[in-house]
Structures are given as structure tokens and as C-alpha cells.
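sry for the spam today, last one i promise. C-alpha cells for design, 80 residues
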């Protein structure tokens, strides 16, 4: 099954499990993946994406970093 060139079976098995291992929380991994889908669709409206699965993996990694940065900002603010 595909959506905008992305193999959804791959996204919801391999990519989601990879994100789950990195976050150690399956719910957070789902949040990261869905945020990545939103960023992907916004980017694909501006220009065609040659390798959608690779691009989604890269976007998911960036979203994961953003989630960690946001979490650390709130954690550091709470400790002050």
C-alpha cells in the first residue's frame, strides 16, 4: 500500500520500530512519525520528491531531534 510514493507498510513497521527503539516509547514514536508525515506532505507540495521513503526517514530523524530539543528545554526549565 502506498501513499504519495511512500510504502506505508515500511513506514508503519520498519521506520516506526526504528523510531520506537530510539525513543523507547511507542506512543512518542507514533507522534514523531505523524509529524514527519505532515512535514513530508508540506514539502511534497512545493517540489516533487525523488525518493519518498528516504526523504521520510530523514524528515523523521529531524522531527525526532526537534522533539528531544523541546523536551530538554522543558526539562531544564523545570529544574531551575
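last one done:
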Amino acid at each position: 500500500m502506498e501513499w504519495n510514493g511512500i510504502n506505508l507498510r515500511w513506514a508503519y513497521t520498519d521506520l516506526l520500530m526504528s523510531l520506537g527503539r530510539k525513543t523507547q516509547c511507542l506512543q512518542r514514536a507514533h507522534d514523531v512519525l505523524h509529524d514527519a508525515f505532515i512535514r513530508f506532505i508540506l514539502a511534497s507540495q512545493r517540489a516533487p520528491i525523488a525518493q519518498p521513503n528516504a526523504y521520510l526517514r530523514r524528515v523523521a530523524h529531524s522531527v525526532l531531534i526537534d522533539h528531544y530539543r523541546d523536551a530538554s528545554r522543558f526539562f531544564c526549565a523545570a529544574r531551575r
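The mean pLDDT is 92. ok im logging off now
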